[in-house]
């Protein structure tokens, strides 16, 4: 893919400009970090796997009417995306208690949440991506009240679609993180990636709390077999995508 200059290098991806100012290329790396980059490593082939999973999931969402930044995926690790201004927010949706929800509230791991939780975190590494209240988010002008309403609705719609899709894959969508951007017309587009790096995914054919994990928690918690788990998610996503 013909790119021009490197615009930004993040922990898992590099963003390049192209000859078209409205189009960027997102390159998926094998680098993995956790705990605000205090833990670093690589997951063999992660870039290829996450690019492929994200590609399939963005297509599933587009088919259901969710506007995303995805244009196409010209190579195994590259995605052409619409140039958007990313909101400095991590929108997390939770269906089952895990991770920081358990740590911060004492709710038991695996507790089914009666209705899904939509939470906003400040995307700011220096501050450690803190959980925001609605008032703090508005105080910091991170979004308008209208955008906040729309983001919540979009996150719930995405959850509905992805929960259903993963269910068909024999995978439970425990929680996930989304990022959104604004295009030049100020339309909100779903951006970044959706992959085992950004979701918690539990294999429904495993009951053991470690064996069921198919996502980055395998890396975070040193559970081993990270590549195999990611590849299994891809295989199931590909198989399910072929059915619809
Ligand atoms: P948490 O339980 O650690 O708050 O994570 C919630 C979800 O968000 C989980 O699916 C992992 C994802 N996530 C990211 O994609 N990036 C991050 O930096 C963090 C902390 C979580």
General description of the model:
- With 244 residues, the chain is an alpha+beta fold.
- Helix 1 packs parallel to helix 6 (226-243).
- The chain has 2 domains: 3-82, Phosphorylase Kinase, domain 1 (2-Layer Sandwich); 87-225, ATP-grasp fold, B domain (D-amino Acid Aminotransferase, Chain A, domain 1, 2-Layer Sandwich), CATH 3.30.470.
- The protein has helices at 46-63, 99-105, 134-139, 145-168, 217-220, 226-243, and strands spanning 6-9, 13-17, 23-28, 31-34, 39-42, 70-75, 78-82, 85-86, 89-96, 112-122, 171-182, 188-191, 199-203.
- The strands form 3 sheets. Strands 8, 9, 10, 11, 12 and 13 form a 6-stranded antiparallel beta sheet that branches. A 5-stranded antiparallel beta sheet has the order 1-2-3-7-6. Strands 4-5 form a two-stranded antiparallel sheet.
- 32% of the residues lie in helices and 31% in strands.
- It is globular and about 50 Å long.
- The chain is built from 6 helices and 13 strands.
- The mean pLDDT is 97.
- Thymidine-5'-phosphate binds at residues 92, 98-101, 129, 175-177, 198-200.
Features:
single chain, 244 residues, alpha+beta, Phosphorylase Kinase, domain 1, D-amino Acid Aminotransferase, Chain A, domain 1, 2 domains, six-stranded antiparallel beta sheet, five-stranded antiparallel beta sheet, 13 strands, 32% helix, 31% strand, globular, binds thymidine-5'-phosphate
């Amino acid at each position: 893919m013909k790119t021009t200059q490197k615009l930004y290098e993040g922990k898992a991806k590099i963003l390049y400009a192209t000859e078209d100012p409205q189009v960027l290329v997102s390159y998926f790396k094998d680098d993995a970090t956790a705990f605000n980059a205090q833990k670093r490593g690589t997951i063999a082939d992660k870039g290829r796997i996450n690019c492929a999973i994200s590609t399939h999931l963005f297509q599933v969402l587009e088919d259901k009417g969710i506007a995303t930044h995805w244009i196409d995926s010209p190579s195994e690790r590259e995605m052409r995306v619409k140039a958007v201004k990313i909101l400095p927010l991590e929108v997390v949706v939770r269906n089952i208690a895990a991770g920081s929800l358990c740590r911060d509230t004492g709710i038991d791991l695996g507790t089914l949440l009666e209705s899904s939780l939509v939470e906003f975190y400040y995307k700011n590494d220096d501050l450690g991506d803190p959980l925001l209240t609605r008032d703090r988010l508005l105080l910091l002008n991170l979004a308008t009240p209208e955008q906040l309403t729309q983001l919540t609705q979009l996150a719930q719609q995405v959850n509905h679609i992805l929960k259903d899709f993963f269910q068909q894959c024999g995978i439970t969508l425990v929680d996930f993180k989304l990022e959104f951007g604004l295009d030049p017309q100020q339309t909100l587009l779903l951006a970044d990636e959706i992959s085992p790096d950004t979701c918690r995914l539990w294999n429904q054919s495993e009951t053991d709390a470690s064996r069921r994990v198919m996502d980055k928690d395998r890396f975070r918690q040193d559970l081993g077999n990270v590549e195999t788990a990611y590849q299994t998610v891809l295989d199931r996503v590909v198989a399910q995508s072929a059915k619809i």
